[in-house]
Amino acid sequence: MFTTDDTADPNADLGAIFRRLIRNTGPISLSHFMGESNARYYGGKDPIGMGDGVSGDFITAPEISQMFGELIGLWLADMWINSGREEPVYYVELGPGRGTLAKDALRAARQYGLEPAVHFVETSAKLKDVQLKTLPGAIWHNDLSTVPGDGAILLVANEFLDALPIRQLVRMASGWRERMVGLDGDTFVFTAGEQPMDAAVPGEWRDAAEGTIIETCPAAAATLFEVAGRLEQQGGAALFIDYGHTRLNAGSTFQAVRRHTKVDPFAAPGTADLTALVDFGTLAQIVHSRGTRHIGTVTQGEWLRGLGIEARANRLAEQAPHLARDIHSAMGRLIASDQMGALFKVMGLAGSGWNGAAGFAPPNSDIPE
Ligand code: SAH
Q1: Is the pTM of this model over 0.85?
Q2: Interval between CA 339 and ligand 1 midpoint (Å)
Q3: Looking at residue 180, what is its pLDDT?
Q4: What angle do CA 117, 76, 280 make, to 5 degrees?
Q5: If 0-12 CB within 10 Å is exposed, 13-18 middle and 19+ buried, where does residue 116 land?
Q6: How many CB atoms lie within 10 A of CB 336?
Q7: Count of CB atoms within 10 A of residue 130's CB?
């Protein structure tokens, strides 16, 4: 990615930097705009709310309820036990946010004897500070390349892939073009690139109607390629949880959120969280291409129910009757289909010899994978 020196200055106005760049060299790709904006956004603040709907810019599942991380920890422990308790084993989390998921998952896993070394992949200096307080023993990495290769990995990524920069392609009369960000006066606007992009478009979309937009996320594809390859080589299992769809749909899903409200992604670059829906169908194909087992991709509601979230909520409520209403309302936010239950998907992967499919298949199902 092209990076101007002054984008590293946290006080420089990113909008002004983009305007100067576009005036000097022409429109920039949406992926350049999104990548630089999110690096600035995450680098300088902890945007994750505490579940009160007021603090932060957005809320994530581990901040809604401890049950989310705990059930992930139980799933990882189950896979590890089925593998014959392989050692060494590493817990690896991509974009761990406040570290809450890791803390809850590792506490639950410990009850089953699973106590892996903790490796975090995180680029935000601000969030690293928060994670350091939650899990002081963790080891940090800027990307996956330095994560150990000499043992099994249990990898988790919640709302990580949706923040990676996407590319958009648009069907024009003359063929497919990349959607670029240009200027109309001082205002950022979408404009079509000059290069033909037909070769980047999946076959079934080549002849789509003029105006059709499709999205790809090369950084998410590269992440799945790397993780799937490592699972085959090193052993282990992975969970990717994000809002997304299981097959590629037409249309832009690019959006910006600030203070729990959708805002104009072009208004003030670097001050809002820029995301797009994750295309799990394409990611599953990448996993298959590496020969790695794709256990399945199901809705977050199905997965959490399959792992017994309702029984867990009842037990927690019995232990703390004064919190019973809060516990059940948090569970509702995680699993109800009009909240996070249907839009969010859980994708499970496993290396050879790592058996188990808890949450991905109906109990007692004899349907083969
Ligand atoms: N998983 C957490 C946080 C989600 S927010 C939760 O569920 O609460 C996205 C996280 O990914 C943040 O920690 C952010 O700093 C990190 N992140 C975003 N882009 C990244 C990148 N390219 N490399 C590493 N981490 C990144």
Answers
A1: yes
A2: 21
A3: 98
A4: 110
A5: buried
A6: 13
A7: 17
